[in-house]
C-alpha cells in the first residue's frame, strides 16, 4: 500500500545563516516588519466617527488596533478551516 502513496511534498524552504526557514515564515516576517514601519511613521492625529461619537486618536493607535483585529480574525478563520478537515 505504501508503493501507491503519493510523494510527500515538504513546504518550500530557504537556507538563512545555515538554518532552513520556510518561505511562509520569511514572508510573515517581512510583512510584519513593513506593518510595524508603516505604523511607526504615521503618528499624526485623526478624527474617527464611531456611529455616534467622534473620537480623535493618534493614527498609530488606530493602525495597531486594526492590525490586531485583522490578526485575530485571521487566526480564527485558520482555526475553523483546520477544524473542518
UniProtKB/TrEMBL annotation:
Keywords: Cell membrane, Membrane, Transmembrane, Transmembrane helix. Residues 42-78 form the Lipopolysaccharide assembly protein A domain. It holds the Pfam family LapA_dom. The chain crosses the membrane at residues 26-51, 57-78. This is LapA family protein.
Amino acid at each position: 500500500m505504501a508503493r501507491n502513496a503519493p510523494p510527500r511534498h515538504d513546504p518550500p524552504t530557504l537556507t538563512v545563516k545555515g538554518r532552513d526557514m520556510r518561505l511562509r515564515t520569511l514572508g510573515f516576517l517581512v510583512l510584519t516588519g513593513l506593518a510595524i514601519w508603516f505604523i511607526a511613521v504615521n503618528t499624526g492625529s485623526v478624527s474617527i466617527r464611531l456611529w455616534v461619537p467622534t473620537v480623535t486618536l493618534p493614527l498609530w493607535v488606530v493602525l495597531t488596533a486594526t492590525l490586531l483585529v485583522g490578526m485575530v480574525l485571521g487566526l480564527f478563520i485558520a482555526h475553523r478551516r483546520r477544524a473542518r478537515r
